[in-house]
Protein 1
Amino acid sequence: MLDKQNIFKQTVLAAAIAGISLTCATGANAESGKLEEIVVTAQKRTESLQDVPISIATMSGEKIDDRGLTSLQELTQYMPNVIVNAGSGTPNLFIRGIGSGTNQGFEQSVGMYIDGVYAGRGPLAAIPTTMDLERVEVLKGPQGILFGKNTIAGAINITSAKPTDEFEGMVEALYEPEYGSQQYNLVLSGPLTNDLSGRLAVRHDATEDGWWENVTTGNEGPDRENWYARGSLKWVASDTVLVNAKYEYGDFESEDSATVVYQSDFVGQENIFGGVPIPVVSDRDKGAGDAGTSKTTDTEVFALTVDWELDFATLTSISAYSAYELFSTGDTDITATPALHRTRWEDYESYSQELRLVSPGGETIDWIAGAYYQSNELDISRQIYALDFLESGPLSTSALYLPDESAPTVPTLFDQESESWAIFAQGTWNVSDTLRVTLGLRYNEESKDLDKVSDSEGLLVRSATGFPVYSNPANSESIADLRSHSFTGLSRDEDKVTYSSNIQWDMTDNAMLYASVSTGFKGGGYDEAYSSQGYEVRLVNFLTGAELGATVPGNDPSILEYEDEEVLAYELGAKMTLLDGAAELNAAVFRMEYDNLQTSSLVGDTFRVGNAGESISQGVELDGRIWLSDRLTVGGGVAFLDAYYDDFSGATCTTPQNMDPANNPGCLLEDGSNIVTPGEKGGQNLKDETLVFAPEWSASFFATYVIPVGTTMELVNGLDINYSDEYYSALDLDPNTKHDATTIINARIALASTDDSWTLAVIGRNLTDEETYLWKSDLPVTNSNSYYGVPEAPRTISIQGRYRF
């Protein structure tokens, strides 16, 4: 294992040299132009990006529209050290290698805020929030003082476009002819009365054919049809009172999402399960599940924001209601064998209220103070169906038989209510014109109450397979029910104090240095996926019958709980405006130390939760842009990330370690020795191993070149290159699930009017047709050295038309 500290020091030096080289190399080419200022609200004030002592990645709504980006997942590909991944079925947000696992009991480690309203659950993050925006800001590192408890890795701050005082509108269409993808956008905005204005934004997108085929069912996908609408009102109630109201509604439907079994021990075995083969399809555009997937999500958000300018400060009130309903079905085993199917219902409601006082600014002491309250209710019901194919073939005996598809096998209910409240304050002492010191403090309290039931009466686990089965009454005395449990009235309460501090020094009028120390936390909770007790024995290989034994404690509700996650973070940074405003260069060096990092890993058919002992995320980030002429602007960013477990014993062993411990050591017994017998219970020690979704290097580059066409038109050419190093998405770091390094090239050629009233463009994404995956993991249930992945779309070429009026 290489010395982590030496690597870190060498990279800091290399980054510094690279930054100096960039400045020198571009200085001779710059002309008299200036870059447009980027404005953000990362500190609950409107400020220039170059004045904020935080590492921030931004993208304007105009750039999002121009690139045809339809989701946060696509947008964050342009932001090094940021990953939004929905491969496991629910969007998961990662910054600097820190994020949340796939268990539905988790909240995000990266808090997402839309117009000041917290969207903590994954389905709310799936709203197509890239439509009709002012900007997206990604704040890296803990943001616990002003944004709250679940920003332990960072925050995504999204600002939608507001109603205008003059009438305007926009219609836009985006069409991809090869796979039938289409998107239509409509925006109308303007005054309704002298003091009241409104804005309406509507989007419809759908895919007719899709680029993926299920060779078992013959269906094509991924198919989707989404409707989304946002209505906003702005009321100037008086000279000192401004009221903004917003209502959002989304209806999102998808079918036949792409999954590929890219490696399996079942290849060529035609007599498994009564002659049903389990084929492997190596092509990313083909899969072989016996049933398609479907998901329907309905979301709604209402927010009311009131700003009241007082003599000494501005008082802001944000009241919000957020909710969604989700229903999904799918093939649990992801194979052509009709083995296990699943359904899931999810219902979520949240109410929140924030009151905030912000001083005018420009005083010796600038300050912010406020209070926050939120209540949530989350209800989840999931069922797994065992199909009747197991009544024949080598897994069936006269003593055991399975229910048919109409009988739910493992129904699980998860009903949780939670409340949290906080008070916070932050003050900045302007020591001099060039020196500022900021201190912040937040006190949080949170409670969670849970009822969880898994009612599988009459369902049994066959010791050779781990599948639930009915017993034959003739010999029922030889087996017992091992799956039912009922945990009601569970409750946990916690309170935390977090702080932040930073110092800023304006080295020159155009260069600012900062240093910060901050803490953050994410509350503990309950494992939504837990569904068994007693002894659970799963089959390692259906062909050999080798068993994997795992002892699970009985009716002990403590097994459901996972603990708080905490962080102590350090950051040094510089923000520089160069070449008389024609260039900007920003740099940050960071180290974040985590205790009890919340994780999840695939065990059988569900993702189970746990806490990693200690984790470190450290690295360097550089970003910049330069105006080279009236026609040419270039920019980009690069990040080095060294994110690893500092203490994590007892992690899930890989399938090769379980199946063949002699040739794949590392699955350890409690005494530290390697397991010897396949299927023997053990755990990995992942100390000094990488975190998931933590590529060592990531980078993004863009260039825009404008060519005049006559006096009223211009040809706008854009090129984007996005690079990601290799990384893992599966917690056990199985080498069979490693994601390869990728370079994605996108381009856009647009003919537009010089007044921006109309645009006609061709957009190419993934032009080199790189094969990439959102997610790779063990094939559920089988424990058979088999793996599946969720592939991303291949190369696409779209036509975009836009008209503004």
Note: Residues 4-648+686-804 form a domain with the Maltoporin; Chain A fold (CATH 2.40.170.20).
Protein 2
Amino acid sequence: MDRSRLEASISRALAGRAVHRPLVAEIDRYWDIFTDSFTELVDAVDRLVAETAGAGARGADPDQALAAVEAWRRPAADGGPDRLERLTAQIRQTEAHLGAVRSRVDRDTVNVGVVGRTRAGKSTLLRAASGLDGTVLPSHENNPTTASRSWIHHRPGQAEALVTLRTWDEFVEQYLAPLHASAQLPAGPPRDPQSFRVHVYPQPGDGGGAPDDYSAVALPYLRKLIQAQTSLDDYLPLLARRGPGERIVVPLKELAPYLSYPSGEDGGAATPRLYHAVRDIHVRCDFPHVDTTAMVLVDLPGAGEAGLDVQQHFLRDLTHEVDFLLHVKRGAANSAFFGQEDYADLHLAQLACGDVPLSDFAMVVANPDVSLSPEAARNVLETARAAVAHYEVRTVECPLGGTPESADAAVRELLLPVVLGHLADRLAEMDRAMLDGLRRRVSEVTREALLFAAEVAASAERWQLGVPDEADRLQTLADRLCDDLADELGVVYEEYDGMVARGEHIPQIEAAVDEAAERVRDWVRGGFDSADEDEWRSRTRNGMFWRAGAMADWWFNRARTKLTEEFGGVDASVDRAVALLWQRMADALRTRLTEAVVPVDDRPLEALLHRVERVPAPVLKKALEDFTGLRTDYGSLFLRVGSPVVQEVRNLTGRTLPQIPAQTQAPAPAPAPAPAEAHAGQAKAGEEPPPGSRASWFKPPADAQPGQPGQPRPAAHPGPHPASEPDPQPAPPAAGGGYAAGATADMEQLHHHLVTTVEHAVGELEHKLHTEALTMVRVLAAAAFQFFAAATGTPGVEREWRRVCRAEQRSIWPGEFDGAEAALSEAVSVLLKRADDVRTGGTEVAAAVGAPLPGRKTGPGQG
């Protein structure tokens, strides 16, 4: 079998796995939001059920509108959990599956877990596959070997282990506390090292705590506590180090005490029990029989030993850390090949593999006893296959009980080719099955949660509309509320109307226009994009030697860009002006409606609109929609007003600029300074360019005809400075003068024209934008009046305010409403909010898992 081809196939499958990481991360993010919302909705349902339990509250629900909510908490006919408990359990199961998928797609390796009972041959198999020797992975005759979880990585040239240590608190919570509970001790574990050192445990056989007084189930756990206590000095220095997650590097020859139990349960005094301080171990060594570094062997402790909550840890490791499981089973004469404990391990594997078929996830490694005859060995293998036929799990014969050389050969020739072939063929399909299952599970549970949220929300809304909870008094209060809101909103409107009457500008827009104008003028005075004006003149005069027209076009393009950059920001001031009006109106509403109806956040009016949409209130809904859509309706101020002005900033020498109204016209620019002295190496007027200078490169031939410099040449857009791009056809010198004189004259003409045009554009933009700012005041005042009039003056709007405020009547009118009915009203309001959050979160999760995966192929044991 071509092992390199199989390993390449496995690498391709792992690369395909990485493609799914963004999808799973997105699902995970939306799932957290959804489950938080669901938990809050469950709390709201329980509160509502408690409120409706009172006689007064039940009298306030004559139409049984809330019966559908209570039904979710009604126990099943068979005494089982109610509907909401079942849905909550389904969500927890889906969350566990999501965690397993997240762990899987985040791995860049294929993790092969190895499990086996005492003396089954697990350590022998791991030694043969990894190349480690018995000092690192010892085999014990009668006792379990593996004390710490370990990952064995193929890293050519390395021989070390990365050991992650526990803290003392982790040791207490993860090790001592479970052992105390399993040992049936009445008190919890000691909380500090000194208390643990002196704690008195029952001693088996000492008369006071004889085995007869102790259950057979609890006794092994007690023994482990005593072992941990008597060996405390061995590992306490490791627990008392820097902090959580600390890692140390241990050479392989020193690793055994961190990884394995001593050779005898009552012996081994010379071997320190350092494994108590270990959270997990990553071994790095050179695998002798594979080349790919993507394969990791996971040594799973606990199968068949008494100790910690073996089943829980074993199941979690299988679910989150293992892609494929090898179950090592030794077959001996006169013994059942597969016992109850073996089937229990396979059952745990079946629970852990999720949506991956067990036939893909697990494989049994049959290790026949070396003492068996060939016929007996075949019987053992056939018995093994028959025992696991129900699970459709493949069985592979691999004799591990002989010499180290024979075990090594068996793993190399009989086991590894089968494992690699299986992973090459099925790993990608296993990943796909997990993702398919995640999509199915998430879709199903969110669909149920959305139905639940919709059902309880509909019941609550029906209750709000149908119960006559002191309707007359509530309507009277709503009438007064409408008058009070008219007073508050009228103050805001009158403020803006006064600005119109006084001819005032919107201060935000006025300030933005003035600041933009000043920035452009500073840009002009500072030499445009140069360090100062002298540098600009020098650079531009040099460019005028051969590209006068392109130079002029480039700078006018740059001026248009600068004007757009600076004055385009005026639109943001319009946003601020509109947002200020929205905030003023929201503040005015909040004084009467409270934060419960108009929250203090970035979008208070949108929150109010969302609440209004849940009740029959068409007038308020239309008023809020129109008012909150004001910014969209107004459009871009700069595009409408400023852009036409900027487009007129062009290189049209000699044109007459239109007049700007005197009150906004910009002051005339200062006269241009006299040309600076020519730089060293430049030709002065009437002189030949110095040999080797830049100007000498473009010296015209003797028979060249004089021409006019500065001929216009179009430029598409501002790009690299034209001085850095040689012109293939340079302009000849000016008639009657040298290069320097012609270039200087062209530069001065360009400077004057550019400054004049930009200053004129700035003045015109100031005038038009200030004029538009006056228009904007009238727009805001009109919008304020329209909202004020619609929300408080439309006939019948008082009834709409009553419907909107009913759910929050206790906070709006404290002291007016109390008792069971009022508490129920508040509980219904909370329920509606939580149901809406669940609907939002569930919809987002469902959308994230909506796309189907590509087609898949069928594996062994599948139809």
Note: The radius of gyration is 42 Å.
